[in-house]
Specification:
Blueprint: E1 2-7, H1 11-23, E2 28-34, H2 38-48, E3 52-54, H3 57-64, E4 68-71, H4 78-87, E5 91-95, H5 102-115, E6 119-122, H6 129-139, E7 146-154, H7 168-171, H8 175-191, E8 196-204, E9 239-246, E10 251-257, E11 265-272, E12 276-278, E13 283-286, E14 290-293, H9 307-321, H10 330-349, E15 353-354
Parallel strand pairs: 1-2, 1-4, 2-3, 4-5, 5-6, 7-10
Antiparallel strand pairs: 7-11, 8-9, 8-15, 9-10, 11-12, 12-13, 13-14
Helix pairs in contact: 1-9, 4-5, 5-10, 6-8, 8-10
Length: 360
């Protein structure tokens, strides 16, 4: 039985991590939660039947000596808490984004390896059934080498209005770092994790004063406090678009938005030498007229809006038993992090950024 501690008691901890660990109760026991606001930690512990709560993460780690720690804090503190948990001998599942720079991502994985512990980014959207089906098709050689891809993650009105997503000093960025990270991770995974070469990006802030529902902005189970959201304080992007080139010659075009006058999308389109796949539409394209259906299986957790976390946490259990490889591998997360860092630099300096610039 693996003892689990959770740092951060917000929406994603309560709606995803805690239910998933409880579902796999033969492998995990949540022994404590921690939040900077002690009242929040106490409330979550009581509501979920967790025996201990803390307001200081290091005290919790010293006293609980957990086997696994979930990091569910605002983005800018992910590295700090992940490194702290690793230093106390815990395996770490960290919410996305794992890091904001190529250098930080490399440092974190190098330290995890030194400690002999698992560090994995919580890239749960890979587990969408249609993405798993597309990956199976690609791995079977039926798509061939992917030379072009399109990533579209669009919300009509989906700016998160709880927590501190809209404040750069806490979140590090806006739509790109919040939902775009999932898209880049999935696209690279599907493409075989090619090494990125360059990024060109543009970003803007629009529709910050036109707010949708909590569900439309990612709080799929509700239960979030939006009273503190002030659109005038928002200092991160709500839209990002651009292009990534890869050393193997492939190209990835992207548009990422929290709020746009476009149709809702969560799609990846891939063009390969053998066929093309429109994942959201579940279509496979071959030859001049060939169109067939992508065969998609059930999710396995149809009643859970965050079912990807259930799959990911089960993978953690199997990795710790020595029965599986990490579903999200270090080099995949490092490449995704490099793209994010380069995209923000590109938008800030209005130029194409070469990935090799990040390595200096």
């Amino acid at each position: 039985m693996n003892k689990v501690c959770i740092i951060g008691c917000g929406m994603i901890a309560q709606s995803a991590h805690i239910p998933a660990y409880k579902h796999w109760s033969d492998d995990f026991e949540i022994v404590a939660v921690c939040d900077a606001f002690e009242a929040s930690a106490k409330k979550v512990a009581e509501e979920h039947g967790i025996p201990n709560y803390y307001s200081d993460a290091e005290t919790m780690l010293k006293e609980m000596q957990p086997d696994v720690v979930s990091i569910c804090t605002p983005n800018m503190s992910h590295k700090e808490f992940a490194m702290l948990a690793l230093s106390y001998g815990a395996n770490v599942l960290c919410e996305k984004p794992l890091a904001f720079s190529y250098a930080d991502a490399c440092e974190m994985f190098e330290y995890a390896e030194k400690q002999g512990k698992l560090l994995m980014a919580c890239q749960s959207i890979r587990f969408l059934p249609e993405r798993l089906a597309a990956k199976e098709l690609i791995d079977a050689g039926k798509v061939g080498d992917v030379y072009y891809a399109e990533l579209s993650r669009v919300r009509r009105r989906g700016i998160p209005t709880w927590g501190k997503f809209h404040l750069k000093e806490y979140s590090g960025g806006g739509a790109l770092i919040d939902i775009g990270v999932h898209g880049f991770d999935s696209a690279l995974w599907l493409m075989g994790n090619p090494k990125p070469r360059s990024v060109s990006a543009t970003m803007s802030k629009v529709h910050a004063d036109e707010i949708g529902s909590a569900k439309s902005s990612g709080a799929l189970k509700g239960g979030v406090d939006t009273s503190k959201f002030n659109p005038d304080e928002m200092n991160v992007e709500s839209f990002a678009g651009g292009q990534v080139t890869f050393e193997n010659g492939a190209v990835l075009s992207f548009k990422i938005s929290w709020a746009a006058n476009l149709r809702e999308e969560n799609n990846i389109v891939l063009a390969g030498k053998e066929s093309g796949v429109d994942i959201e539409q579940k279509k496979i394209y071959t030859g001049e007229d060939g169109v067939s259906e992508l065969e998609v299986g059930p999710s396995g957790f149809a009643d859970e809006p965050f079912y990807g976390h259930f799959c990911l946490i089960k993978n953690v259990a199997e990795v710790l038993k020595g029965n599986a490889e990490p579903f999200v591998k270090p080099q995949e997360t490092i490449h995704t992090t490099a793209i994010l860092e380069a995209a923000y630099l590109s938008a800030a300096e209005n130029r194409t950024v070469m990935i090799e610039e990040l390595l200096r």
